[in-house]
Amino acid sequence: MEFRYSKITVKIGSNVLTKPDGTLNVSRIAHLVDQIAFLHKNGVEVILVSSGAVAAGRAVLKPSHKTDAVSKRQLWAALGQVKLIGRYSDFFGEHGLTCAQVLTTKENFSSRGHYLNMKNCMTTLLENRVIPIVNENDTISVTELMFTDNDELSGLIASMVNSEALIILSNVDGVFTAHPENENAELIQKVGINDGEPENAISGNHSEFGRGGMRTKFRIAKKLAKAGIGVYLANGLKENILTKILSSDEISAHTFFEPSDKSSSGIKKWIAYSDGFTKGSVVVNKGAAAALKSEKAVSLLPVGIVTIKNEFKKGDLIRIVEESGDIIGLGKAQYSFDKVEAEKQSVKQKALVHYDYLYIETTTNH
Ligand SMILES: Nc1ncnc2c1ncn2[C@@H]1O[C@H](COP(=O)(O)OP(=O)(O)O)[C@@H](O)[C@H]1O
Ligand SMILES: N[C@@H](CCC(=O)OP(=O)(O)O)C(=O)O
C-alpha cells in the first residue's frame, strides 16, 4: 500500500480518548493503536503525542475536599498517566510492538541542551523501532510554563524529529467556517500558508479535560506549515481516520494546512517555538523591519535598532519588534545589549542576530 508519508507525528486529544463521563475510551484507544500498528508495520514511523492523563486520573480517585485545583490536576495526571500508558503498552504489545513513555515540560524546550537530549532519546527510540508516546508532565508543569496544550507540544515534537506531517486528532472533522454546531458551518478542506484565520469562525471553547481549543490548533498548524511540515486536523472518532489520511488513494474529511516549500533548519524551528523564553527585546526602524520581513536572507544589524526594550546577554533569545509594537521575529543575540551602540559606530558592524539564528514570524510576500 502506498503511503503519503514515511514519518509522521500524531496528536490525540482528550476528547478523543475519553468518554463523556471522563473515563478512558478504551475501545477508541485500541482502534487508534490498531491503525498506528498497521502503519508502523508498513514502514511509516509514527511518533505519538497523547493527552488523556488528567481525564483518566479523574476516574481513579476523588480528591479530598481540601485539594486545590492545581494539586487536583497534578494528582489526576500522576494517577492517569499510569492508566493511559498501560493501555497503550498492552494494545501495542498485542501487535508485537513496543511503545515508550516520554514526559516533558515546556522548559525542556528552552534549554538547547535539554532539547538536544530529548531529541537524542527520540532518535534512539525510533532507531530501535520503538513507538514514542509523548505527553506533558503535568505533575511538574503547573504554571505559566505549561504548554498551552498538547497541540503546542505536538508541533514542537514534529519539528524536533523532522516529521513530514503532523496529524492532530480531535472530535471534529477539522476547522469549520463557524462552530460545527452551527448548521451552516462548512468544513474548510485546505488552508494555504498565506491564509489567515477564517473570520468569526473559531470560538474559544475546548473540551472539559483539554486545554487548547481550535484557535490554538489553527495557530500551531499555520506555524508548522510555514516551517515546511504539513498539518492535518481530523476527527479521531472516525473509523480508520489515520490510515485513510495516509493512504494516497483514500478520501477522508479533514482540514489540511499546506506546507511551505521552504523547510526551516532545525535551529530555526527551535527558535520559532521559543517565543516564551525570550530574555530581551529590541525595536527596529522601518528600513530594518522591511528588510527582515522581505524574502531576502538578512541579518539584524545594530544600525537598524532604535531601542533596546529589554536587556539581554550574548546567546539570549530576543524578540524583534517594529516601532508599532508588532513582533517581527525572534533570534539569538551574538552579543549583549550594552555592545549595540559601540557596534553601530564600527566600520564593519557585526550583526546582532545572524540570519542562521533568526526566525521571522511575518514575511512580506512580493
Ligand atoms: N470553527 C471551529 N471549527 C471546529 N471546531 C471548533 C470551531 N470553533 C470551536 N471549535 C471547538 O473546538 C473543539 C476542539 O478543540 P479541543 O476541545 O481543545 O480539542 P482537543 O481536546 O482534541 O484538543 C471542537 O470540539 C469544537 O467544539
Ligand atoms: N497533559 C494533559 C494534556 C491536556 C491537553 O493538552 O488536552 P487536549 O487539549 O485535549 O489535547 C493530559 O494528558 O491530560
TrEMBL record:
Q: Which residues form the signal peptide?
A: none
Question: Which subcellular locations apply to this protein?
Answer: Cytoplasm
Gene Ontology annotations for the cellular component aspect, listed alphabetically: cytosol
What is the reaction catalyzed? L-glutamate + ATP = L-glutamyl 5-phosphate + ADP
Q: Which UniProt keywords apply?
A: Amino-acid biosynthesis, ATP-binding, Cytoplasm, Kinase, Nucleotide-binding, Proline biosynthesis, Transferase
Keyword Kinase in the entry? The reply is yes
Q: In which pathway does it act?
A: Amino-acid biosynthesis; L-proline biosynthesis; L-glutamate 5-semialdehyde from L-glutamate: step 1/2
Which stretches make up the PUA domain? 280-354
Sites binding ATP sit at 11
One matching Pfam family: AA_kinase
Q: Which residues are listed for substrate binding in this entry?
A: 51, 138, 150
Superkingdom field: Bacteria
A biological process term (GO) from this entry: L-proline biosynthetic process
* GO molecular function per UniProt: ATP binding; glutamate 5-kinase activity; RNA binding
Per the UniProt record, which EC number(s) apply here? 2.7.2.11
Task: Say what the protein does.
Answer: Catalyzes the transfer of a phosphate group to glutamate to form L-glutamate 5-phosphate.
* Similarity field: Belongs to the glutamate 5-kinase family.
Q: What name appears for this protein in its UniProt entry?
A: Glutamate 5-kinase
